[in-house]
Amino acid sequence: MNISLEGKVALVTGGARGIGLATVRALAESGARVAATSRDGSDALHELSSAWPVVHIPVNAVSEAGAGQAVAETVAKFGRLDILVNNIGAIDAKAGADFTALADDEWGRMLEVNLMSVVRVTRAALPHLCKSRGSVVNVSTMNAIMPNPNLIAYSAAKAAVTNLTKNLALTYASQGVRFNTVAPGPTRTDMWAGRLPEPATEEAVRKFALERGIALGRFAEPHEVANLIVFLASDSAAIITGTDSIIDGGLVKTIH
Fold first, then answer.
1. With 80 as the cut, is the pLDDT of residue 194 above it?
2. Torsion angle, alpha carbons of 108, 114, 119, 124, to 10
3. Which of 9, 84, 90, 169 could be 241's S-S partner, Cβ–Cβ 3.0 to 4.6 Å?
4. pTM of the predicted model, to two decimals?
């Protein structure tokens, strides 16, 4: 399948690294003009900007002001908005802590970063997406449906993103705007830096993955998640809305 996004404009939050950066690249390679938010940027994002119609918007899109600025600058630069990828996310600072050790400020941080960033950017983008009959892909996680006692607040916040997405899919279907979530499992990003076996040989990583229940015996690569996001955002998925697409190598084994 050859996916063309020629003429489309996309906004990716958290687009400097990992899945976000891979998504910016995949969207641009498919023909879209892309705006990517991050507070600091990255060398890799700047390299993309020199080779493709990609712009970096240096804002904190978690905040209401930053969310509004991200959308406004995207439209000012490219004249429209067709695709929104809400990718901002962060895991619990106290990963592995007992539930009772998670104070209100930690819960608040997880909800701000993982849920309210989606609420605020989507709210700012909707007037433009309704005009273009656009598409929103929210990056959730398989932990939204598969409990992980090491990531309680993160998992709860991402579950709220999945629920919100389904609600918005129903609410805005009559205006032609589609909403879907992508739910990655363990993915080879900076989040796993220092947690993989050393040396990280193919066999060592395979053993590590299988021990954690990943049926295919490996982590996802960022570009594999990005390819799914691009498909869901494209007209090739024009009939698909309100779905939660798990991409985890077979880690989640329940029917849902």
1. no
2. 110
3. 169
4. 0.96
